[in-house]
Amino acid sequence: MLITNVITPSSSGAVVAVRVEDETVVAVGPGLVAGAGEWVIDGDGGLLTESLVETHAHLDKAYLAELIPNPTGDLMGAIAAMIANRHVMTVENTIERAERAVRTMVRNGVTTIRTHADVTQENGLTSVEALLEVRRRTAAIVDLQIVALLGWPLTGSRGEVHRQLGREAVGMGVDIIGGCPHLDDDVLMANADLVDLAGELEVPLDLHADEHTDGERTSLVDLAERVMTSGFSHGVTASHCVSLGMQHVDDQRATAEKLAEARVGVVALPQTNLFLQGRDTQSAMPRGLTAVKHLRDAGVLVAAGSDNLQDPFNPVGRGDPLDAAGLMVLAAHLLPADALASVTSVARAVVGVPAAGPLVGAHADLMVTPVSGVREMLATCAPRSLVVRRGRVVHGRGRG
Ligand SMILES: [Zn+2]
Fold first, then answer.
1. Which site from 75, 250, 287, 374 is most exposed, i.e. has the minimal number of CB atoms within 10 Å?
2. 52-351 sits in which CATH class?
């Protein structure tokens, strides 16, 4: 396949072509000529980049906003609304809503999604069952990683039911263990139990970490030290890390160095945390963002994600990671290229998929957007005209 008539972020406006063989980019440059029988796609002068990663979704809750309102608008209001209305979520309607969300994201250029699936005493493994079915249905267009988001408590004898559900979820085909230590009575013990459980199951860990604005409470140094002392080697992601953003800069730097040393990736979730957090403070309202600058300065991989999609945790959202990237410019003060990396190259590294893009030897996960550069792409979120996943067109011209 030859994608002609495109510019790339590094081509300085020069028009090039990109050749793909199987799942790999094999040539990039001006003057590439189509071979006999080669499939040619005209990029119409658009910007060809690597495709997008949604690092943090909750597909099982997608599009529940009308069915389950959140009257207080904060995190605990959303959680309470979910618990009171759990019966609204059936396996069938979860499959329908989640599949709709996946197909929307793919049209927006997403080829890898990491989604959490509620695994609690109340709903058992129904979200896992639904999302495994969605993964089967969409296997040809997207890579879907599923995290078992274990309910709380996680610790002690009362937590055993959740830890056991985590084992069953991994047995069913879930890829990653997750949970919310900050909701547990014993946050540090919850960190320990989750690291132990993921180690036992030999899967990565992706935590909802410190999703609150109390700068006195942060569990990230403990998590980093526990990862290092336990020798856990399957990959750790700390999502949210909101309270770190409320701390003194010296503490932010010290925590960032520990996370870098332990190779813990961080996912910032500006959309949902701007909505949920800071509601008790009307003067100098917190942004609900982690300490993006000091984490990046220390060498921590900081990706961005969308979190919730039109549900009690976030009533808006379009299933487009460029929205999160735009907020990384506005609210986290990244340059446009770095903001795009937070939903592309850095995001790929955080969720553990190979590098992609218009580079020889890279994975052919690509997209074309009808814009003249990265800043314009983030400013307009123009509809993607072509999305390629593993060398196959999954949206746009030439599909099939
Ligand atoms: Zn989340």
1. 250
2. alpha beta
